[in-house]
Amino acid sequence: MRLGTVVLVLVAPLSVAESQHPTKVFRIVELNPGVPQDQQKVFREALRARGYVQGQNILIEDRFAGGSEDRLREYAAEAVRLKVDVIVAVSSSAIRAATNATKTIPVVGLDLESDPVASGFIASFARPGGNLTGIFVDLPELTGKALELLKEAIPGIIRVALLRDPALNPALLPAAESSARSLSLQLQTVEARRSSEFEGAFRAAVRGRNGALMVIPSPRFDRKLLVALAAKHRMPTTTIFPEYTEAGLLMSYGPNLYGLFSQAATYVDQVLKGAKPGDLPVQRPVRFETVFNLKTGRALGLTIPPALLLRADRVID
After folding, report:
1. Both 180 and 265 in a single domain?
2. Is position 306 within any domain?
3. How is 32-43 classified by DSSP, letter by letter?
4. Fewer CB atoms near the end CB (10 Å): N or C, the chain?
């Protein structure tokens, strides 16, 4: 009789710590009133650099409302039901939806329009209190600086159209109007609540005989479509984020949008490691850059004054 071979496999027992504390998978929901943009990829890459791998120890879910405030509130309520670990809220409307839905789940806000204290979101920048912290770009003077540079770039310009999302905080509008008056520029406001309304806004700007367009960015705006329509209508266009100039607009002055999303990832990391949002100081951007796209300028038949280019932080050619 042949005896079978017995193979003995020894399995090391799990330690008490490993058996009782398996790897936690953190759940993050991003509330966004607009449409997907490439900054979401930047946010994920920044978290990955801090050791968070999608599907392994973190699960990031995007909720884009496509311009619907009702859908945004529904997504916020859903995040609360799911008991997520952090809500990342992009824009004041997303922050309001999140903080109205929960006073306990940490909220990391990225707001490009509001004064968080005046809006009632936080108690103070140093100690926001509650369950909210984040980055706020409530700097209305940026629009004034962008208009100033635009006038230098296009000598003799008289009329400028201002494209804005009426759903955004209106505080930026009077700041832009005041700057336009000081620069002897006539300002025509055109509005778009979503990218599908861009075409009508550009046509209104052309009918108004405007020599250029200034865009106040909105999370509801599709950057690529904006650039395409600016080229189609041969409209010199400026804004506050350099990423728009990299995509093809003529010029910009303001903070790096991708950098802001990386900062948001830093906040998420701190919260997941146990920090309380109310103890994390709210930040504003402190570095701004002037960027010109010479390729776009040539396509428009414009020559940016050399003295202005020398002062630029970056020139895209």
Report:
1. no
2. yes
3. ESS---THHHHH
4. N
